[in-house]
Amino acid sequence: MSLHDPPQNFVPYPAKKKQPLKTMGTAGQPKTNLLIPALLAVYIIWGSTYLGMKIGIREVPPFLLSGIRFIIAGSLLFAWAIYKEKQWPSIKQVLNASLIGFLLIGIGNSGVAFSLKYMPSGLVSLIVAANPAWFILLDYLFFSRKKVGIRTLLGIGFGFIGLFLIFNPFSATEHKDFPLWPIGVVVMGSMCWVTGSLLSPRLKLPQQLTNTAIQTFVGGIAALVMSAVLEDNQLASIQSMTHVSIGAIAYLIIFGSWIGYTSYSWLINNAPPRITATYAYVNPVVALFLGWSIAGEQLSLEMFAGSVIVILGVVLMTLRKH
């Protein structure tokens, strides 16, 4: 997952009175012209970060890669946030943002990076695409207790059928040259991502840029701690980095953590949730295509069929009747 700012408006809450888009500039001019560029940035850039992480971890251990990426991105973003927002957060706000950053980035995104060491990037992105199912389940069990509709149940069913087709351990085909246990790592990371996302709108947090910077930085620190515990030869890996891995990290920082991250933050504050949520099923398409066309990852007919079913399931879960 390359995962980002908590999708606060993604959670299915009770219907509210329809409000117009908050897309007014500082001079009162509408900024709806930013909607399409922001969506394209989230669609393409977030989908491409799976491949970026896949390339980076060829030379740098995954937790170390996440730590370097998010600490650099968070530090620079925090400096910009203090200059732009001109307000220091309270201790409580820092602690709350740190908790969300630990769940989303420290565990969620780092778990995705770790799984990419063993699995194709397109398939990892498809498991992450099942996040709406975890949103609905955890929200019902621990937060809103909102009942699940028929459309949502159908979507969940489609999603799990598709994932079974992709990762079917009973299949006799030879295209699965990766272990199945990393699926559990991605699922655990996804559930932490969802938990943090559900907690986020219920906690007192700093202003948007400062909140994002703290979450990013703390997530990077958590990834470095896990690297120190679970990985070896960190210093040697850094010293032996080539222009390829350096370029991958730079891409993830600039495009994934800044442009894509900022675009998503703008969307959750200015676009209807049902539009913002479409990234969940567009990203896997981008990741699968890039993994196949650039990284040479295999995409069998069974995997393709499962991918279509997963995406169909997420569409059913995220689109509203009206």
TrEMBL record:
<dbReference type="Pfam" id="PF00892">
    <property type="entry name" value="EamA"/>
</dbReference>
<feature type="transmembrane region" description="Helical">
    <location>
        <begin position="301"/>
        <end position="319"/>
    </location>
</feature>
<feature type="transmembrane region" description="Helical">
    <location>
        <begin position="122"/>
        <end position="141"/>
    </location>
</feature>
<feature type="domain" description="EamA">
    <location>
        <begin position="38"/>
        <end position="167"/>
    </location>
</feature>
<keyword id="KW-1133">Transmembrane helix</keyword>
<feature type="transmembrane region" description="Helical">
    <location>
        <begin position="276"/>
        <end position="295"/>
    </location>
</feature>
<feature type="transmembrane region" description="Helical">
    <location>
        <begin position="95"/>
        <end position="116"/>
    </location>
</feature>
<feature type="transmembrane region" description="Helical">
    <location>
        <begin position="179"/>
        <end position="200"/>
    </location>
</feature>
<dbReference type="InterPro" id="IPR050638">
    <property type="entry name" value="AA-Vitamin_Transporters"/>
</dbReference>
<feature type="transmembrane region" description="Helical">
    <location>
        <begin position="242"/>
        <end position="264"/>
    </location>
</feature>
<feature type="transmembrane region" description="Helical">
    <location>
        <begin position="148"/>
        <end position="167"/>
    </location>
</feature>
<feature type="transmembrane region" description="Helical">
    <location>
        <begin position="212"/>
        <end position="230"/>
    </location>
</feature>
<keyword id="KW-0472">Membrane</keyword>
<feature type="transmembrane region" description="Helical">
    <location>
        <begin position="63"/>
        <end position="83"/>
    </location>
</feature>
<feature type="domain" description="EamA">
    <location>
        <begin position="182"/>
        <end position="318"/>
    </location>
</feature>
<dbReference type="GO" id="GO:0016020">
    <property type="term" value="C:membrane"/>
</dbReference>
<feature type="transmembrane region" description="Helical">
    <location>
        <begin position="34"/>
        <end position="57"/>
    </location>
</feature>
<keyword id="KW-0812">Transmembrane</keyword>
<comment type="similarity">
    <text>Belongs to the EamA transporter family.</text>
</comment>
<dbReference type="InterPro" id="IPR037185">
    <property type="entry name" value="EmrE-like"/>
</dbReference>
<protein>
    <submittedName>
        <fullName>EamA family transporter</fullName>
    </submittedName>
</protein>
<dbReference type="InterPro" id="IPR000620">
    <property type="entry name" value="EamA_dom"/>
</dbReference>
